[in-house]
Every structure is written in C-alpha cells, then in structure tokens.
Design a protein that fits this description.
14% of the residues lie in helices and 32% in strands. Strands 1, 2, 3, 5, 8 and 9 form a six-stranded mixed sheet that branches. Strands 13-19-18-15-16 form a five-stranded mixed sheet, with no helix packed on it. A four-stranded antiparallel sheet has the order 23-22-25-26, with no helix packed on it. The protein binds zinc ion. Zinc ion (ZN) binds next to α5.
C-alpha cells in the first residue's frame, strides 16, 4: 500500500485538455537535478551558435483509427507536423526524423492511462520516441488531449507520447508534450514555488528557467486571442508580463509557437544525459507486393488467377506470412475479406512469384470490382513501410455470354450444379427442388433472389448418377421453371 502510494505520487504525467486548452497535471521534480551542473551546461550551450549540426532523434508515429483515413493524418500531414515541431525545437540541437512509415493500429479508439500503457507495450518500437495519435483520451478529471512522461520517470520502453488527433494545432500540442518528454515544466509551474514577476527567484521557482517570464497560468484568463491583456499580479503585487506564445504555457494551443533558449538548453541537457537511448538506425525489413496484371475479366462463377511479385527487403525472421484478399465495389474501401492464404518464406529469399486462385463470390453481378491483396495483414513484421503491402487490381464481372436461364455444366461431373437466372423480378423468394424422373424429391434449397443476375451453386454429391429435373420455383410469383440435367461421375 505504501509502495503503491509512492508510485502514484512519482508517476508524472501531463494532460492536455481538449475542452479548455491544456490541463497538465504534473507532480514530480527531477530527483537528481543539480542546479550547478545545469548552470554550467547552460553557459556552454548558450555560447554555441545556431546552425550547429543537430542530433537526429528517430521517432515512431503510430496512428490508431477505427476507419481508415479518419484522422486525416496522411504521411504528408505527419511529415509536415514533424517539420513544424522541428522548427520549434530549432535551437535545442536535436531534430526529429520519422523512423519508417507511420504504423497503423486498428481497434480500440479511446484510451486512458492503463490501456495506453497496454497499447504502448504492444506497439513500442525500441530506440525510438514513440508517439501515438488516437481518436480520444479519457481521464476521470476531464476531457484530455494527451499526455507524456518526464525523463526521470519510468523506464525508456514505458515512456511515450500519446495524443488525440482531434485537436487544433497538432504540431504545437505535440511540441508541448515532447517538451515534457525532454524535461520541460510548464511556464506557470508552481510546485517548486511561485515565480515572481520580477524574475528574482526564477532559478528556484516556476519552471526553473529565467528567460521564460513568470506566468500565472492562462487558464485563469487574461488573453485576447494570443495577446496578454490581463491585470494579474504576482504574490508581492507586481504585474505579470507572461508570454502566451510559449509552447509550455496553458495558452490556447493555436497560440503556442515558441521555446526560449533556456528551454532549448534544458531539452538538450536531458537529450545528452537521461535520454540517450533513442539510437535506432531506422532500418527495418520491408515487403512490397505488385502484379503485372492490372485487371481481370471473369464470369461470376469463375476463379480469378493472379500472379504477384513479392519483394522482400531485409531479414524477415518468419517462415511464413499471411496474405488476405479483399473485395470491394468502391475503390476507396478495402471491402470484405474473401480469402486468406498463408505463404512460406524460404530463408534468404528476396523475391517470390506468388500464384493465387481466388474464389470469387458467385453472387456478384456484372460490374467492376476491386480486389486487393494484403501481405502481413496482422502486422507481424515491423516494417519500413506498411502502405506497400497492398496491391489492388480491377476485376470486371461480365456474365453477358450466359443465356438468361441456364443450368450447367450438363452433364455435371464435379458434383456442383450451377444455375444462372437473369430477369428483372429483382427481389423474390426462390426455392430450388431437384426431382428424379419418377417424381421423387431429392433436394431442396431455399434462397432469395435479390438482384437481376442470380447465380447459385448446388452441391449434388448426394445424388446417384442419372437424369434429374431442377425446378426453380418463385412462390411470390406463382411460377416455376424446370431444367433437365444429367449427373455423371467417374
Ligand atoms: Zn503540459
């Protein structure tokens, strides 16, 4: 009990509220912070000039969406966001680089502290700064837009940044959270003491930095858009002159655009002391699937035979991998899975020719469809780029060569009797009966005809060889059609 209480107190976390700007709760200071050491660091850091070579920090971006594309975080938007964050961090001597393509996560969309830890545990990419963009974050306290962890809390693999993608100025909010990740306090922090407006206690109070003016916390008001117009006074009666543009303030997120030199120095201080584990070379294996056959034309009862090329770049530590086939009549959607295959990966292979025979759903009418092959649909391999695991071809279904009413093959030798009916009695009950020549009923299939072109396959393996009559009965219409067929098997 004692231990868990201590853990709660030291568990440092910063929230940003989506409803009223930021609402970070932070409860701990760096237990190892040495003011003299930092002052020395600050002096030498300030003497270095801008334009120095920056250390590259690999980041892994994870995007969790229930509907593909819902976040609007395309690869381009993510790159632009990272570039803007890099602009804010320009003086900090570090530069964030995207490590592999953004990772896609499907499933649960609302996160709180516990399941965010689980999410991170399942998806954490070592030696990179892991940033999760999710649809929503809940907390008992309020609507929450994101949180992250100070460098002196937790182990490297349990430290991450998570934020809601439903937030204005995502780059500013992300910079704020990364600021905490690199040890920055809020400009209005007061747990070390309230910073006075004249800056006389700026080293020991507030955010422990002297070039960030004392800040009373903008949640109390005093802003006209991003300008301070308030009349707040500090504990000794002096007027505040805070900076609403500071990224570590609680000004509305669209105001946040600046970090000071001392903030930049503190970021670099933690970069070179505590956060030395972000060293990934960002070299991951990769699958790339393609096909030289952009389109196929079939009759609805036929299989689709497609040959794919699978390029395998790098070392895949698996003996086999799955390929799913999706079918959609809308180019913008994957649609439904119609087939799952498992392929073996011979050791050391770099390219594979894959031939698939795909069982097309017989109930699709004359139309154009989109068939998408997806390699490693469960993301079992951590890849450089997941977007190239998909390849889509168009499939044109053309039943025009078939007569309006036909039963085939005839004779039937493979135990599958196919029936095709084309008429415009679109929606109707439809029953199939199979009789022998003595009038005995052998099989009944109840169906529903919901489109003009109707295909049905009936398993006739239970029938002996011989002549039969198939009756297609439309009970709603009071009519029947009959077809003779002959079954023979060898
Ligand atoms: Zn914060």
């Amino acid at each position: 009990m004692q231990k868990s209480l201590l853990f709660t107190v030291l568990y440092s976390i910063c929230f940003i509220s989506s409803s009223f700007g930021q609402a970070c709760l932070e409860v701990s200071e760096d237990p190892n912070f040495d003011q003299e050491e930092f002052d020395g660091f600050l002096t030498s850091f300030a003497n270095k000039k801008k334009g120095n070579i920056k250390d590259q920090i690999p980041i892994t971006v994870h995007v969790a969406e229930s509907v593909q594309g819902a976040s609007g975080l395309s690869n381009e938007v993510i790159k632009t966001t990272i570039n803007r964050v890099n602009g804010y961090f320009n003086d900090a001597g570090i530069e964030f680089i995207l490590c592999g393509a953004p990772r896609l996560i499907f499933g649960e969309q609302t996160y709180f502290r516990e399941n965010a830890d689980i999410l991170n545990g399942q998806n954490y990419v070592t030696e990179t700064l892991n940033i999760y963009f999710v649809e929503g974050i809940t907390d008992p306290n309020s609507g929450v837009g994101g949180f992250s962890f100070f460098p002196w809390t937790r182990t490297p693999e349990t430290r991450y940044v998570i934020m809601s993608w439903n937030f204005p100025n995502v780059a500013g909010v992300l910079a704020h959270e990364i600021g905490h990740y690199y040890g920055l306090y809020h400009t209005h922090a007061s747990f070390l003491g309230v910073e006075l407006a004249d800056g006389s206690n700026c080293r020991n109070a507030g955010d422990q930095l002297c070039d960030t003016p004392a800040d009373y916390n903008f949640l109390a008001g005093g802003l006209d858009r991003c300008k301070y117009v308030g009349t707040f006074k500090d504990p000794v009666g002096n007027d505040y002159n805070p900076n609403p543009k500071n990224i570590m303030s609680y000004a509305p997120s669209n105001c946040m655009s600046e970090l000071t030199l001392e903030q930049s120095a503190r970021i670099n201080f933690y970069h070179t002391t505590d956060i030395t584990y972000l060293t990934s070379e960002c070299s991951f294996p990769d699958f790339l699937i393609s096909s030289s056959e952009p389109s196929k034309s079939i009759r609805a009862d036929e299989d689709i035979n497609v040959t794919y090329d699978l390029d395998i770049d790098g070392d895949i530590k698996l003996n086999e991998i799955e390929v799913y086939f999706w079918l959609s009549d809308d180019q913008t959607e994957l649609g439904t899975i119609i087939q799952k295959e498992t392929i073996t990966l011979p050791p050391g292979s770099t390219t594979l020719d894959l031939d698939f025979s795909i069982d097309f759903p017989i109930n699709r009418s004359t139309n154009t469809y989109y068939l998408t092959a997806q390699v490693d649909p469960e993301f079992r391999v951590l890849e450089q780029e997941e977007g190239n695991n998909l390849h889509t071809i168009t499939v044109t279904v053309d039943n025009s060569a078939l007569e309006d009413q036909v039963v085939f093959a005839n004779p039937v030798s493979n135990n599958i009797l196919k029936i095709f009916l084309r008429d415009n009695s679109t929606k109707t009950e439809l029953n199939f009966y199979i009789w022998d020549h003595l009038g005995r009923l052998h099989k009944t299939v109840n169906a529903f005809k919901n489109r003009d072109e109707y295909f049905e396959e009936i398993d006739i393996s239970s029938l002996a060889n011989g002549l039969y009559i198939l009756e297609a009965n439309f009970p709603d219409k009071g009519r029947s059609q009959s077809f003779n067929f002959y079954k023979q098997s060898f």
